[in-house]
Amino acid sequence: MIRAVLFDLDGTLYDRDAAMSELAHEQFTTFRERLNGVDEERFILRFIEIDEHGYASRPDVYRRLGDEFGLASGLTHDLERHFWEAYARRCEISSDTWSTLQALRTAGKTLGLITNGQTRWQTRKLEGLGLGSFFEVVLISEAEGVKKPEAAIFHRALDRIGVLPADAMFVGDHPEVDVRGAHDAGLVAVWKRVPYWTLALHDVLVVDRLSEILPVCLQA
């Protein structure tokens, strides 16, 4: 029986790509007069491509945009600062995610979060999403000194809530960092499918909506 359900944050609990697309539009509109006539569609496309679904660093994203479009260094710094100010408000939780978390909590499941990233930044996103106090355990890689896919971070989360790996599920969008990491750590691994990555493992549950995990989690 599943006693605890742990989640990845970005791309799993909210649509990160949608947030990035909206932010790219906002940045173009805000800085249009300083972008040297760069085409809006091209700016947004390259912004999203260079971002690599969150696996590129912010300074590198804006450095590369600046190099490609011939932007002044002062503008790239302003774009990066604007990103940190604006991103959190672009993150939204879907009704499916809310109802799934509520159903799990109502059923008495222990909920947790394991995310790679900077402590301050990931905490801000959780608060912006309204999830700051939702989980009984939250592990952020910078604070823990270990990150997914290392088994240690999964086991550390389970130790804190007193649950064995076989009695816990982990849901994430990255096939290696999240799914293989959780699988190799002994948890029930679930892939929240995304169109831009391919899953190599075959003995894991694949879902398109978080609510699809409920039949497995809530069965006796």
CATH topology of the largest domain: Rossmann fold
SSE topology string: EHHHHHEHEHHEHEEH
Strand line-up in the sheet with most strands: 3-2-1-4-5-6
SS element count, helices: 10
For this structure, what is the CATH class of the largest domain?
A: Alpha Beta
Commentary on this structure:
This protein is an alpha/beta fold and 220 residues long. It has 2 domains: 4-15 and 92-217, 3-Layer(aba) Sandwich (Rossmann fold), CATH 3.40.50; 16-90. The protein is built from 10 helices and 6 strands, in the order βαααααβαβααβαββα. It has helices spanning 16-31, 40-51, 58-69, 73-86, 95-106, 119-129, 141-144, 151-161, 175-184, 214-217; strands at 4-7, 110-115, 137-140, 168-172, 188-192, 205-207. Strands 3-2-1-4-5-6 form a 6-stranded parallel β-sheet, with helices on both faces. Helix 1 crosses helix 2 and helix 2 runs antiparallel to helix 3. The termini are close together. The model has no long low-confidence stretch (mean pLDDT 94).
Structure in a nutshell:
With 220 residues, the chain is an alpha/beta fold. The chain has helices spanning 16-31, 40-51, 58-69, 73-86, 95-106, 119-129, 141-144, 151-161, 175-184, 214-217, and strands spanning 4-7, 110-115, 137-140, 168-172, 188-192, 205-207. Helices cover 48% and strands 12% of the residues.
